[in-house]
Design brief:
D-Maltodextrin-Binding Protein, domain 2; alpha/beta; four-stranded mixed β-sheet; 384 residues
């Protein structure tokens, strides 16, 4: 079964719930040492990420696992496999919920086919919040409780942790610069989550593919354009081999975070001290990931221009404004169809209204200082 079909289809909630319950019963029947009796030796967990082994995202997954393994002194040993090792990238939620995998590393937008409200944590303009603000809403503004409620609604047997604020993602890689919203009419374009709805409404023929499949699809002409995430991932995955035009800045995924998930049955059986270590490692990995991203992405941004001869352009304001207008219509439609979607939107919006105002009133813009210290080298990307 292809990953694309996984996104396009709407699986039966009853079937998914039954699978999750069956998996939980099987797990309990098998009897994990920490559930049935006192743990006699190290607890081993087999995980999978939703990323190819060469992607920096998979490296982030390995970084988290190493922190847990080290901090527990080897009492918990997490092995992380790359996408496709056990299940397709878009099959991670079901595999972890059933107990086929003990845990995983991905993004909530990849579960879009199970419950589209899950993608509100990774798609769209997030009411002008950046990813760190979104994590603040998640931890302190009610997002975590709403996510648990969402998972319960589809029988998801998982314990979820969000971490790793991502920078605003590029509009993507194209054959020629995007100059106006109409350029998306009929364009064969890759994205995921609720960005599928956004670009479909703008006229694109959207194909949702996991990271490792995008460049081959562009190379074969199955896609005209695509977005993934950042300078490092895009370079490692080979985007410069199939396109030399990248459009920077977009609202389609301006505030995304990663998700770490455990099979809930297995997680619940862990000692309290181990759970506390996991929680601390999530936050430590979140900070480390954001720092590593700044270092690596900035280096690869330069390499893409100097070695790979990629030309970067700023996405025109007319395209950005069209995204915002389309997003309003998506929120209205989905909220009318899904009460949980509506509840999450209301919670995000209330938090963002005060948080973004505080941030915009307080934090100084950095372009003036950059131009002062670095002059011509600080020039913004070309206009599309």
């Amino acid at each position: 079964m292809s990953d694309t079909k996984e996104v396009e289809q709407k699986p039966s909630r009853r079937k998914f719930l039954a699978a999750a319950v069956t998996g939980s019963v099987g797990v309990a029947a098998a009897g994990f040492p920490m559930i049935a009796k006192a743990q006699a030796g190290p607890i081993s967990m087999r995980w999978q990420s939703t990323w190819p082994a060469k992607d920096i995202f998979h490296e982030y997954a390995l970084d988290f696992a190493k922190k847990v393994n080290d901090m527990t002194g080897g009492d918990l040993k997490i092995e992380v496999l790359p996408a496709g090792a056990v299940v397709p990238a878009f099959g991670l939620l079901e595999a972890v919920s059933k107990g086929t995998l003990d845990g995983g590393h991905g993004v909530l937008g990849y579960h879009y086919g199970k419950q589209n409200a899950l993608a509100l944590w990774n798609s769209g303009p997030a009411f002008a919040m950046d990813a760190n603000m979104l994590l603040s809403w998640h931890k302190y503004g009610g997002g975590k409780e709403l996510l648990a409620k969402l998972y319960a609604s589809i029988g998801g047997n998982v314990e979820s942790f969000l971490y790793g604020p991502m920078a605003t993602q590029p509009l993507g890689w194209f054959k020629k610069p995007v100059t106006k919203p109409e350029d998306f009419k009929g364009l064969k374009y890759r994205t995921n989550g609720l960005a599928i709805d956004m670009f479909t409404a703008m006229g694109a023929a959207v194909n949702a593919l996991p990271g490792g499949e995008i460049v081959p699809a562009m190379d074969r002409g199955l896609l005209d354009a695509a977005e993934f995430n950042n300078a490092t991932s895009d370079r490692l995955l080979g985007f410069p081999d199939v396109s030399k035009i990248c459009m920077l800045q977009s609202y389609h995924q301006s505030a995304e975070t990663f998700e770490i998930m455990f099979n809930k049955t297995k997680y619940d059986g862990l000692p309290a001290k181990m759970k506390a270590i996991i929680s601390g490692c999530v936050e430590a990995a979140s900070a480390d990931m954001s720092w590593k991203a700044i270092d690596r992405y900035s280096k690869d941004y330069i390499e893409l221009q100097t070695k790979d001869k990629v030309k970067f352009y700023k996405t025109p304001d007319s395209v950005l404004m069209e995204q915002l207008k389309v997003w309003d219509a998506i929120l209205e439609k989905k909220s009318g169809e899904n009460p949980l979607f509506k509840e999450i939107v209301a919670s995000q919006k209330a938090f963002a209204e005060r948080a973004v105002k505080w941030e915009q009133d307080t934090v100084i813009g950095r372009r003036m200082a950059m131009n002062h210290f670095f002059g011509a080298k600080a020039a913004a990307p070309k206009k599309g």
